[in-house]
Amino acid sequence: MKYRRQDAKEYARANLRGIWAATLTPFTPDRRVDEDGWQRNLRHWYRDLEIQGLFVNGKQGEFSSMSVAERKRTAETAVDAAGADRGVMVSCSDQSLDTVIDLAKHAQAIGADYVVVHTPLLYFGAHTADTLYEYYRYIAEHVDLGIALWNQPPDCGYLLEPEVCMRIAELPNIVAIKYSVARETYSRLTRMAGDRLIVSTSNEEDWLDNIVELGWQVYLCSTPPFLMQTTVDRRMHQYTQLAFCGDIERARTVHASLAPVRRALSQSRPAGKAAAHQKYWQDLLGQAGGPVRRPLLDLTEAERAATRAALASCGLALAPAPHARAPAMS
């Protein structure tokens, strides 16, 4: 490990910074993990796009359709690709607490920087403050790595209230939260948290305002860092660095210039097919995307055509990533 359990918060404050992207897992046409494509993507994201860290095996990565062995293998490859200057946060979310602990211990053993665990799906009103505290206390007791909480109410059916977040944050190796909630709620938690908990969310459009108005240090995280950027067009990276340097006016200009790309992504995405749409967008950018696994549905040919048209007209400068496939624009 790069730090001791009791130093996890301090390490995270110093190193959990910049843009961290949530990865998609590429599959081959027969829906095996595309290991070669995964390695190419990792090199492209870390080196060409200069993404600071990756959030591996989350919901975007279709972890629920992957075996534990597959999840461990993709995490190992990500850690190898990160080297000494990039970070890895491994999602250990699962309905089986034994699996959560197994994956967290594995992440620690291979040299990952942090783990992240989604609030569990609970039934019959069991999502009490005591239940949720004990859930994370138990996990924190079994690993030394820094742990990020993760709450997205539509997924688990309840809000992890800011007060409960702060109670959990008293544990020494609880370091951050990916808080996919309304801005009013995550702003309140940010004001409460101080240096006890790093707060972030996945909305790229608000990232600049969150740096400026809330003092946020990390984008944690979703797919825009590699869907809205290419080797020759890294405007998200650019406006982030401008904001961190205090050049807010220029940062806002660059941020605003990405509005057509944001619209193209959102307006061409069919309902219920976020993963398939994003993976096809990856294919068009020269990254390895591939199909989704069941029960998710792939895009129809009409949906693919609409996605191609949206990308072609959004103003994102395209160039094949050196380590990836050439874009398939037809």
Tags for this entry?
46% helix; disordered C terminus; 330 residues; alpha/beta; 15 helices
Question: What is the overall number of helices?
Answer: 15
Rg, alpha carbons:
19 Å
CATH topology of one domain: TIM Barrel
Q: What is the averaged pLDDT score?
A: 96
Describe this structure in words.
The radius of gyration is 19 Å and the shape is globular. It has a domain at 5-228: TIM Barrel, CATH 3.20.20.70. The longest helix is centred in the first third of the chain and has 15 residues, at 68-82. Strand 4 (114-118), helix 5 (129-142) and strand 5 form a beta-alpha-beta unit. The chain has 15 helices and eight strands. Helix 7 packs parallel to helix 8 (183-193) and helix 9 runs parallel beside helix 11. With 330 residues, the chain is an alpha/beta fold.
Provide a concise account of the structure shown.
With 330 residues, this protein is α/β, with parallel strands linked by helices. 46% of the residues lie in helices and 11% in strands. The chain contains 15 helices and 8 strands.
Please outline the helices and strands:
Blueprint: H1 8-15, E1 18-22, H2 35-48, E2 53-56, H3 68-82, E3 87-91, H4 97-110, E4 114-118, H5 129-142, E5 146-151, H6 153-156, H7 162-168, E6 174-179, H8 183-193, E7 198-200, H9 207-214, E8 218-220, H10 224-227, H11 235-244, H12 248-257, H13 259-267, H14 274-285, H15 301-313
Parallel strand pairs: 1-2, 1-8, 2-3, 3-4, 4-5, 5-6, 6-7
Helix pairs in contact: 2-3, 3-4, 5-7, 7-8, 9-11, 11-12, 13-15, 14-15
